[in-house]
Amino acid sequence: MAAAFTFSDRARGIDASGIRKVFDLAAQLEDPINLSIGQPDYPVPDAVKTAIATAVANDRNAYSPSQGVAPLVSRLQADVDKAFGHADRRAFVTSGTSGGLMLALSALVNPGDEVVAFDPYFVMYKHLTTLCGGVCKFVDTYPDFRIDVEKVRAAIGHKTKAILCNSPANPTGAVMTEEEARGLAELSRETGVPLISDEIYELFCYDGPFVSPATFDENCLVVGGYSKTYGMTGLRVGYAHGPKALIEQMIKLQQYTFVCSPQPAQWGALAALDVDMSARVEEYRGKRDLLAGLIGENFPVRGADGAFYMFVPAPWGTGTEFVAACIKEGLLVIPGNVFSEQDTHFRISYAATDDTIRRGAEVLNRLAERGPA
Fold it and tell me: Rounded to an integer, what distance in angstroms lies between the CA atom of residue 154 and that of residue 137?
């Protein structure tokens, strides 16, 4: 007799149907034009591969301390001290950036609490908050994906336990200005609501410098990682830095959940810190410009200042309907309602070869000009 499982509210509260439909349709394609992937199309640097292989060969395969191997933690702390100069700021190694976010929300959010985030949002924010028993309260940033601090202020209530921001942003590619970063930091200090800054795409800024809100707020928690910059998404190494009291709680939670980031990958991350990735950033700036130039007449491009995404409005129908038409033509993109409470846009990833970008743009333009079937 099969077991009669009764699933938890937290499991049933997560709806993965939107993106699952895309992947189910994609599975039927033999040679898709893939502009859906949220990871770099280049390989892990050789220095990182060598460091990981050496760690394995030297039997550095056991658990590390929950906060990370000492040389990596020391390097992180030194870099953080140099960048921010906050006496109480501590750093540690997480099991990926998503792991760091999970720890942060677990440390701050009780059932029924609220987390303020920006719509469009990275798909995990809503669901990680649900896992903690909380609720996301979204601040609309359409149509230009800019942050209005007064809208954030209006969204804060007595149940608000965190403000969660992401720059450069997934799915929009928007990069916070210094004014926006300073405004969020000042609001966090004024209200006492902790600010969590997801900076996984920090290096990929094309039209201006990256500004962390932690520059203006010693209590801001920063999460980041190595996955996007170095193409090591499957190796699960991230980091977090923030006030000592919060970091200690996160390390404690990591000890009883993820335990630690995989030790060999941590040695790879240490080696990655000495690899110059500026040529890759310039390469991706070129991909951004290529795609924007190819589709700009049919798709107004907002944001796209960083990361490797464009979040553009569907030229007809809903985002889901337009994406379904794209998939029928062999093109994989992601409907906007995966990242938003609206279904008006869709996400394009230009983390692909230039040829794939050109082929994808041809399909997009043809469908836009053709209209609904």
Answer: 11
What DSSP designation does 205 have?
B
Distance CA 282, CA 66 (A): 35
Q: What is the pLDDT of residues 141-172, one digit of tens each?
A: 999 999 999 999 999 999 999 999 999 999 99
- Edge-to-edge strand list for the sheet holding 345-349: 309-313, 345-349, 334-335
Q: For domain 14-44+277-368, give the CATH number.
A: 3.90.1150.10
The whole-angstrom distance between residue 363's C-alpha and the CA centroid of its chain comes to 27
| Torsion angle (degrees, nearest 10) of CA 132, 135, 139, 143 | 90
14-44+277-368 and 46-272: identical CATH topology: no
Ramachandran sector of residue 192 (left: φ over 0; alpha: ψ -120 to 50; beta: rest): left
**Confidence (pTM):** 0.95
d(CA 368, CA 127): 32
**Residue matched to tokens 């995989």:** 262
User: Residue 225, SS3?
Assistant: strand
CATH architecture group of domain 46-272: 3-Layer(aba) Sandwich (3.40)
CA distance 195 to 191: 10
Which residue, chain included where needed, has tokens 């990370």?
Answer: 68
Q: Give residues with Cβ within 8 angstroms of 179, minimum separation 6.
A: none
Task: Give the pLDDT score at 29.
Answer: 81
Residue type for position 341:
E
* Residue 336 and residue 317 in contact, taking contact as beta carbons nearer than 8 Å: no
* Angle formed by the axes of helices 278-295 and 354-370, nearest 10°: 20
Exposure letters 317-332 (e unless 16+ CB within 10 A, then b): bbbbebbebbbeebbb
Domain ranges in the chain? 14-44+277-368, 46-272
